[in-house]
Design a protein that fits this description.
By secondary structure, the chain is α/β, with parallel strands linked by helices. The chain has helices at 24-33, 45-64, 78-92, 106-118, 137-145, 168-177, 249-264, 266-287, 321-328, 346-351, 369-385, and strands at residues 12-13, 72-75, 95-100, 123-126, 150-154, 181-184, 204-208, 219-223, 292-293, 307-312, 331-332, 357-362.
């Protein structure tokens, strides 16, 4: 087989952890909404109509994740939401100590490190990781016992590269036990997991619509209602004073429709994706007996069903070449976070010391079992050309 020729000219998209295609229902809803206009801060009828659409969206989103509408603050996406929460919490909650992990998303890690360089009294600790990048809860509790001053714990619900799920409920309870604030980056899980914020001891969470088949450039921060934070973007009273500037009206409407669709189809979509992931794991093991699954991504109970991260023993190909060859064959996937696309994954380096090729395969609602068959056939072709261990 010519490995430089796309199979049946079909494009197989397996990079859904980076971004997802919009559902047709979302596209149609946005198109229809474009006929409406007005500044939601205006007091005339045009403004009131747009304001009602935004607030109705806020109520629907809050109901879906079992939160209060006042706890939903619309942002440009997950990165802004993480920045808003971390920076505002440090400034307004008198945070003296932060506990996080060294495999968090860059929007969390870089924000914490940048802010800590400006606040000399702020200390940062990294919780120990057990095998396969599992958070060491005993170490977390030990660090909380020895803390001083107000503490913020920031641990992502599902790792965006290796798919590991934390026990968000248990960690929330631990944080409450030691009076620590708990922020969880839930960008990979809102839209893919069921949430009841009123029963979770989570003070802050974040979401981005393009991770669950909504539009790019819109997301939200969940901020527990009793926490009084000040904005990092000022100049207006939009979003209850938490984010100045005219709201992304059409993005918010698209976000609302996307999250409605995600949870309306939740059981069906999750079961379908889990079956595809299981089939992919089984098929990969057959052609690469020495394959290594990074993190807990091959454990369907301990990882998000949308992410699988593999490490293939290599002899000739370097880390950058295999995704390129796959792309030439119509297989679209990545080695890790799109925010870190030009560098070797720091997540993999922190949990797995080897020189293998690492690939993140991430599944979505539009994938089918035959997509995996095409991926496997391409990998078989590459294996016949390139020597693997």
């Amino acid at each position: 087989m010519n490995i430089n020729k796309k199979i049946n000219n079909k494009i197989i998209y397996l990079d859904n952890a980076a971004t997802t295609a919009m559902r047709n229902e979302v596209i149609q809803t946005i198109i229809k909404s474009l006929k409406k206009f007005g500044n939601p801060s205006s007091t005339h009828s045009f403004g009131i109509e747009i304001r009602s659409l935004i607030e109705e969206s806020r109520i629907i989103i809050a109901n879906i994740i079992k939160a209060y509408p006042s706890e939903i603050i619309f942002t440009s996406g997950g990165t802004e939401a993480n920045n808003m929460i971390i920076r505002s919490a440090i400034e307004n909650l008198n945070i003296k100590h932060i506990i996080t992990s060294n495999i968090e998303h860059k929007s969390v890690l870089e924000t914490i490190l940048n802010v800590s360089s400006l606040h000399k009294e702020l200390t940062v600790e990294f919780v120990n990781l057990k095998e396969k990048g599992v958070i060491d809860l005993l170490d977390l509790e030990k660090k909380l016992i020895n803390k001083y001053g107000n503490t913020l714990v920031s641990l992502m619900h599902a790792n965006n590269e290796i798919g590991n799920l934390i026990d968000i409920k248990n960690i929330g309870n631990i944080c409450k036990k030691y009076n620590a604030y708990f922020h969880s980056d839930t960008i990979q899980t809102i839209g893919h997991c069921i949430f009841n914020m009123q029963k979770l001891n989570v003070d802050f969470a974040t979401a981005s619509a393009h991770k669950f088949n909504g539009p790019a450039g819109i997301g939200f921060a969940y901020i527990k209602k009793y926490l009084k934070l000040k904005p990092i973007i000022t100049g207006g009273y939009q979003e209850r004073g938490m984010r100045a500037g005219m709201e992304n009206i059409y993005g918010i409407i698209g976000l609302r429709k996307a999250i409605e669709c995600a949870y309306l189809n939740f059981k069906k979509d999750k079961e379908k994706i889990k079956k595809i992931k299981f089939y992919c794991i089984k098929s990969l093991k057959e052609i690469f007996p020495n394959i290594y699954f990074n993190g807990l991504s091959d454990d369907l109970n301990k990882s998000i069903h949308t992410i699988l991260n593999i490490s293939i023993p290599l002899n000739i190909i370097n880390n950058e070449l295999l995704p390129f060859i796959l792309d030439l064959n119509g297989i679209i996937l990545s080695q890790g976070s799109a925010c870190n696309s030009n560098k070797l994954s720091y997540v993999i380096k922190n949990i797995n010391n080897n020189n293998n090729i690492n690939l993140r395969i991430s599944f979505g609602i539009f994938n089918k079992k035959k997509d995996i068959d095409i991926l496997i056939n391409v990998l078989k072709s590459i294996k016949n050309v390139v020597k693997f261990y």
